[in-house]
């Protein structure tokens, strides 16, 4: 009888001890990291620079390096990441497929960083008829192609179109597989330095190419504090970029495989909104992003990229912009 009581009491005390330790043990178990995918693009490099500076380490945020925009979208579709750095039209395309996404940050507005390049020997765009044009047939690529053709009154059927993801642009150009190329920085900078002519750019289509950070609704609910902290770090990195351009250029140059002295010119064709501008753009009272979204939806429907029945609601929020930065 005594042994039985002693055994039960010992089991009880051990169980009580484990219960007391459970809060401490659970605090030691690290939650799954918030994964965000992004490819090489000057506007996104500010967040990747924050990673290089070590400012994301304590936030449990993992930036996933992708080779191109298509890979970013695919990773989000497959649930491999919870957020992605995309163009606005790529975000619209995912929403049209049924994904419940929100834009929580505006990285940049392209005012020349997206461009159409021609071989040096092509002195007139009309000489492009019957020749080969390479581009990535994402929504952004199709948008630039559509605007370029309209601008010069060309037809798709007059060109030989080749689909190439961004990571293959430079090599295809070097191997002279293409007569023209729709591409973006930093690839465009390298090709222009090699002698290409700029025939068209996003400066001709203002307020059309926005680069944004999107996350799923589930991610907003689960990682609310982490998202706010990550944006706080992003704006800290943006401030570092503006106040210490030499250090920032060297850090960005490493990831883009470029010379540090060439980095700042990549940003001549970009507007980088600060926290206050982001708060305004992402508010429901500001019509600029809403108007651009509606215009893109209409254009993408005309181009048969998305269905005619798709209706876009407010797909953005400024709730994660740190209020102390306003």
UniProtKB/TrEMBL annotation:
Q: Where in the cell is it found?
A: Periplasm
Residue stretches in coiled coil: none
Kindly state which keywords UniProt assigns to this record, in alphabetical order: Signal
Instruction: Indicate yes or no for the key word rRNA processing.
Output: no
Keyword 4Fe-4S belongs to the record: no
Cited Gene3D superfamilies:
Periplasmic binding protein-like II
Where is the secretion signal located?
none
**InterPro entries xrefs:** SsuA/THI5
Q: Where is the SsuA/THI5-like domain?
A: 46-248
- State the similarity comment: Belongs to the bacterial solute-binding protein SsuA/TauA family.
Name this polypeptide is given: ABC transporter substrate-binding protein
């Amino acid at each position: 009888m005594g042994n039985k009581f002693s055994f039960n009491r010992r089991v009880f005390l051990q169980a009580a001890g484990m219960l007391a330790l459970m809060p401490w043990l659970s605090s030691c178990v690290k939650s799954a990291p918030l994964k965000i995918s992004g490819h090489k693009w000057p506007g996104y490099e500010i967040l990747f620079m924050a990673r290089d500076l070590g400012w994301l380490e304590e936030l449990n945020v993992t930036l996933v390096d992708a080779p191109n925009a298509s890979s970013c979208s695919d990773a989000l579709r497959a649930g491999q990441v919870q957020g992605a750095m995309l163009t606005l039209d790529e975000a619209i395309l995912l929403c049209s497929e049924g994904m419940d996404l929100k834009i929580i940050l505006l990285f940049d507005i392209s005012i020349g960083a997206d461009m159409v390049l021609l071989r040096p020997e092509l002195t007139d765009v009309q000489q492009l008829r019957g020749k080969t044009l390479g581009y990535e047939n994402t929504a952004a690529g199709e948008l630039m192609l559509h605007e370029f053709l309209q601008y010069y009154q060309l037809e798709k059927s007059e060109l030989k179109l080749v689909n190439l993801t961004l990571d293959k642009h430079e090599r295809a150009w070097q191997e002279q597989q293409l007569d023209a190329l729709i591409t973006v920085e930093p690839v465009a900078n390298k090709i222009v330095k090699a002698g290409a002519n700029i025939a068209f750019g996003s400066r001709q289509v203002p307020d059309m190419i926005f680069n944004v950070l999107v996350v799923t609704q589930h991610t907003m609910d689960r990682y609310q504090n982490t998202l706010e902290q990550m944006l706080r770090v992003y704006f800290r990195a943006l401030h570092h970029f503006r106040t210490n351009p030499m250090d920032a250029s060297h850090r960005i140059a490493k990831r883009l495989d470029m010379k540090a002295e060439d980095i700042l010119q990549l940003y001549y064709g970009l507007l980088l909104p600060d926290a206050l501008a982001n708060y305004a753009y992402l508010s429901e009272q500001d019509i600029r992003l809403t108007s651009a979204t509606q215009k893109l939806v209409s254009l993408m429907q005309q181009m048969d990229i998305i269905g005619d029945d798709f209706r876009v609601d407010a797909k953005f929020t400024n709730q994660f912009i740190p209020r102390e930065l306003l």
